[in-house]
What we know:
about 170 residues, mainly alpha, 7 helices, globular
Amino acid sequence: MEGQVIAAALLLVSLYGLFLGVTRKAVFYYDKWDLGLAFAPWALFFMGYQLAIRGQEILAYLVFFLAAGAWLYSVWLTLRYNRWQWLLALPVLVAKIILSFIYVVSWMDILNANGKNDSQKSDSRGTAMIVVGLLSLLVIRLVNGPAVYEARGWRLSVPKTMAEDRV
């Protein structure tokens, strides 16, 4: 029962974060670099898990450390791009974490489908492809940093040359 309440709360908070991003009330992904950084921790985590399974503990710890660093940097960027306004940044952050997890797991399911026979594997891959396709359409809409800054009258706090290099 408690797990269901927590899952429902996370779902509501992440839907609110998606709403803030789609309506351009909060910065979801500032640019494509921020978008890629949001997915990096999950990919690194799964790589570290695979290394740990194969007995490469030292290398796995290094990859887990990189995943934690990428995640903390992504959290910091989310807060920074939303001008340290916690009520905007926290729902966006929850939504980014959940969305990126679903996206990476769906890609993994495309590449290595589960199932007892070819028909079940095909169904699994098809479902994962639909999820990836729909999330890709949504993610493109969520790269909204410059639009949010313009709509809110905010100024970018990094030097202009640095911002131009990242676009």
